[in-house]
Amino acid sequence: MSHVLAKSQNNEILEAGECGGAVTSILKYLLDEELVDGVLALSPQDDVYDAFPVFITASDDLLKTAGSYHCAPTMIGDLVQKYFTGKKVAFTVKPCDMRAVEELITRHKIDKDNIYMIGLNCGGTVSPVSGREMIDLFYEADPDDVVSEEIDKGQFIIELADGSEESVKIHDLEEKGYGRRNNCQRCDVKIPRKANIACGNWGAEDGWTFIEINDEKGQELIDGAKKAGILDTKSPSDAAVEGRSKVENIMIKMAKKNQDANYPLVSEMDEWSRCISCYACRDVCPICWCFENCELNKPYFKDESNIPPVPIAFQGVRLSHMSFSCVDCGQCDDVCPMDIPVSLIFDKLQKKYFARTGYVAGVSDDIKPPLYSPEKTEL
């Protein structure tokens, strides 16, 4: 692992991108050098609060994806394994996206040799609906006037079309039910170190991206983009490296505090009593992939006599199958029509398993999940 500061040598990217435009420049390098068939990226739609996945094959189209969007995860791993098998593809990943991709690699659904993962440090994501409401209530600004937003030093900062900035403490927003999504508040993986490189503004100088190079492939990316003349790099100071580490540790400490506050509050059976077995949580999960052979589709799990079905017949099976692989992206919570905190329940169990084994889904290298581990006998 090593660190560099990087910024684009392309003026258009410098203007459109965040903190030096290094990420967009690296993606451009991959396309221009034909190292990938395409780039899976996010493009804003009606506003900056939400973005839509797009597959880009011409580097000129990358400009419309430049910038930072704190939108919810967008099933990157699921899209790659469903639609890009056999193709060489690059994509950006938040930590939960990275974890999902790693779990799918473990299941042989994604070929690691065919992908480039460009990691993005993440302090949390915001729901597009509550995000707009939050801007209106707390910033007294028109949500449509927001051109960019950023989470930094405990503040949620927005930039308006006139160039002015407004900020509110994350704590104050979340105390009122706004700010980051619930799963983001307790997430303790802030830097995607299983990606080839991890990029962000933590510890960076103005106009530069701080990049952690995590493997040989990541080093080749930086060296290649620099040789191609699209990327400029320099070494960060010791103070910059320390500053980045300090931000990460503060974010993790906040997450642990939220875990301590929320785990005791959730009772699995009380929550599951509202389940109607609509399968939305299963269908949106980036780790669930065997829909055709899913155990939950078997006739003996269909209980027509009970409406709604007995919760344990659905949620209990999902818990036993998937909780140890949950990447805490929170998408199951987003789609549940009964407001069941599915990911909170899964994460609560996973933290118990972590306390005994040290295993973290999508992060751990040398420890296997319970179904494949000798630890299961002891447990």
What does this structure look like?
With 379 residues, the protein is α/β, with parallel strands linked by helices. The chain has three domains: 192 residues, no CATH class; 54 residues, Nuclear Transport Factor 2, Chain: A (Roll), CATH 3.10.450; 113 residues, Fumarate Reductase Iron-sulfur Protein, Chain B, domain 2, CATH 1.10.1060. 37% of the residues lie in helices and 16% in strands. The chain has 15 helices and eleven strands. The strands form two sheets. The chain has an eight-stranded mixed β-sheet with strand order 3-2-4-5-9-10-1-11. A three-stranded antiparallel β-sheet has the order 6-7-8. The radius of gyration is 21 Å and the shape is globular. The two termini are 34 Å apart.
Summarize the helices and strands and which ones pair or pack:
Layout: E1 2-8, H1 11-16, H2 22-32, E2 38-44, E3 51-56, H3 76-83, E4 89-93, H4 95-106, E5 115-120, H5 128-138, E6 146-152, E7 155-160, E8 165-169, H6 170-175, H7 182-186, E9 197-200, E10 209-213, H8 216-227, E11 231-234, H9 238-262, H10 268-272, H11 280-284, H12 315-322, H13 331-335, H14 342-357, H15 375-378
Parallel strand pairs: 2-4, 4-5, 5-9
Antiparallel strand pairs: 1-10, 1-11, 2-3, 6-7, 7-8, 9-10
Helix pairs in contact: 2-8, 3-4
